[in-house]
Design brief:
Structural class: mainly alpha
Radius of gyration: 18 Å
Shape: globular
Number of strands: 4
Distance between the termini: 44 Å
Strand content: under 5%
Number of helices: 10
Strand order of the largest sheet: 1-4
Length: about 250
Amino acid sequence: MTVVVLFILHWTFAVFIQSSFHHRYASHRMYSMPQVTERIFHLLAWLVQGPSYLSPRAYALLHREHHAYSDTPKDPHSPIIIPNPLRMMWHTKDCYQAHVEGRSTPEPRFLIGIPEWRAVERIASTWPSRIVLGAGYAVLYLWVSPALWLFLLLAPAIMLMGPLQGGIVNWCGHRWGYRNFPTRDASRNTLPVDFVTGGELFQNNHHAASGRVNFAFRSFEIDTTYWVLRVLDRLRVIRIGPPAELPAAA
């Protein structure tokens, strides 16, 4: 069905933007790129996330706090501390919104090197922007959907795509899966080949070596976002730095 193909393409592109730009670039600076390319990524994030747009600045602050306080009471999204997934996501939303609205006081170390485009972030985070883009996506999906029930089934994921992708990673990546490294938190690798969230579900690998752009470690693990970034690096769109050293596997 056309609507299913559209949804898969939309989900995959949104996952790539969130994994590559929000996470690996804004939060960790795993690679570099010219300012014009950075601005293009900002605009793509606004366009592809649409009604569920996530500010790269607020995302980066939230994620840096997560690494510093993983699975402790100061972690903004830990299923170990908040075992109800809806409550965990609501708490994450509150922490995120505080960063967006300037009601938080981040530690100075979390503010270093975060890419910002305040004008775009302010507009993209407004309700008029979310409503307009949400309506645009609704019209597009309704146009290609063969039945109203199918659109209604997909609608929550379409309208909440950014937070939903983050919720899947934060919940599953600290609850289910295997561990390669004896980290201090409960991080796990949920999928050996992660097409669902673009490599984000290699949480144990990532927490063990948070500066490494390739989240996969073992021969059977495949991080799809990393391989796209490798192509962009070969095309000189971005520049990936030397890989960070990994600790010994468990």
